[in-house]
Every structure is written in C-alpha cells, then in structure tokens.
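USER: Fancy drafting a protein?

ASSISTANT:
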Amino acid sequence: QVRLVESGGGLVQTGGSLRLSCAVRASSFCLNDMGWFRQAPGKQRESVASITSSGKANYADFVKGRFTISRDNAMSTMSLEMNSLNPEDTAVYYCNAEKCGSPRSVIWGQGTQVTVSS
C-alpha cells in the first residue's frame, strides 16, 4: 500500500515563503504524475501544480512565477516551494499521485495547513 505524507505547512506573513514536502511511504511502488492541490474554506479543491515522472512541471496561472514544484524519484519525495505568499494562498494543501497501471488510481495525502497573515 502506498501512502503520501505531507509536511511543511504553517503560518507565514504576506510576502513570506514556505516549502511543502510530500513523502511517499511504500515498500515498492510506481507513480506517474504527482501534484499539489489546495482547498480553502468554502471553496472547491483546486490544482496548484503537477509534475510528471520525467520532471515536466505545470502550474496554475495564479501561482506561476511564485511556486516551484520538484520531484526526487530516488528519494521518493515531491516538494512545493512557495514564495511571495499572500492571504489568498491560505488553504489546506494536499499532495496526490497517480499509480502506474490500470484502472487509473489516485492517492492523496492527509493535507497540511498553510495560513498567510496580512
């Protein structure tokens, strides 16, 4: 069984930075795309960034130029470097990953809270 464990959330002031990490816990696994989502109170969960197994990254328009997603397959980790944070970035951030094979199967972490104060 594959589990994802997020860490690195917290409270930061406007303009500050945080680095989120997502660790893959499993004895053996194969993962395709991985990504970060977020959900603010009263809002739907939305995609923030994704990265393929070969390292190609995609970003939501609202984080382009501020956030950087990275992935270390050897260390079984994925990170999200967040800079120039603003209160609109306040949300619970979740990492997810698509398992190899079919049918398509996506796993989620438990989430980590990011709060940006004004």
Observations:
- The chain has a mean pLDDT of 95.
